[in-house]
Amino acid sequence: SLVTPHDALRRARDHHRGLAAFNVVQLEHAEAYATAAEATGRTVVLQISQNAVRYHGALAPLARAVVEVAQASTAPLVLHLDHADDRALVREALSLGFTSVMFDASALPYDENVASTAEVAAEAHALGVAVEAELGEVGGKDGVHAPGVRTDPAEATEFVAATGVDSLAVAVGSSHAMTERTADLDLERIAALRAALTVPLVLHGSSGVPDSTLTAAVRAGMTKINIATHLNHALTDAVRAYLADHPGVVDPRKYLGAGREAVTDEVMRLLTVIDAV
Ligand code: G3H
Ligand code: ZN
């Protein structure tokens, strides 16, 4: 079923457990996540990023398909718009039935970030939709590795109070789009942010974080764990291996099917990693 994230976020935060959020680029991603959620009985967040929308040229076709996947599933699934800085896209997501949106105004000066995020939060909350924002830019979206950036707990507390967001993405040492799992997280900062804030904390760029550090981060207080690149790695490795073994294949269902299965398996494994508390 398609659900809002409020209960799952609250429960996960209270019990120091992770709520997994995985990115959808192709329909096969959503199918893999739903299969893993059904097999484990876990709530999973399916997220479509603004970048994925730019790739497809539109939000609605993929989003409508993912809404159908979620509604047909026996598992509770959240549909989240990831990394949107385009207010029109946020509105479109709200009209398509997304149950959660991330409005990312972190590139703006602080005051403007607060003002625009508060407006988006009010629009979303009127529809019962949850809002995630970001403070302390998580580097790497353009390949820039910025592991040194940290979110300040006092500023974060003020930001959440001023905007009314439901969860906050924080910079604690991770970087986006890492293909090697070598990131080191600032567990002390995570604990300080959790103690200072009442809303759940979101870890972006989790692909670069080793399993043991992900578990430690959840224990220390991270709640929503965003993973994209790592699963594309699994998918692409499986597709590459399938094509190498079957050079004559032309049916995409064969190799995408192999990729989808690899993603399902890796998601099942990751769910245990972030819930190993
Ligand atoms: O918002 C999505 C995540 O932060 C994914 O980052 O591709 O480095 O796992 P990642
Ligand atoms: Zn991210």
Automatic annotation (TrEMBL):
* Obligatory cofactor(s): Zn(2+)
Textual note on the cofactor: Binds 2 Zn(2+) ions per subunit. One is catalytic and the other provides a structural contribution.
Coiled coil spans: none
Q: Which UniProt keywords apply?
A: Metal-binding, Zinc
Q: Example GO biological process term? A: carbohydrate metabolic process
* Superkingdom classification of source: Bacteria
Q: Give residues annotated as binding Zn(2+) 1.
A: H83, H176, H204
| List of catalytic residues | D82 (proton donor)
Which InterPro entries does the entry link to?
A: Aldolase_TIM, Class_II_FBP_aldolase, FBA_II
> Which terms in the Gene Ontology molecular function aspect does this entry carry?
aldehyde-lyase activity; zinc ion binding
Positions of Zn(2+) 2 binding: D104, E134
Q: What is this protein called?
A: Fructose-bisphosphate aldolase
What species is given as this protein's source? Answer: Saccharomonospora piscinae
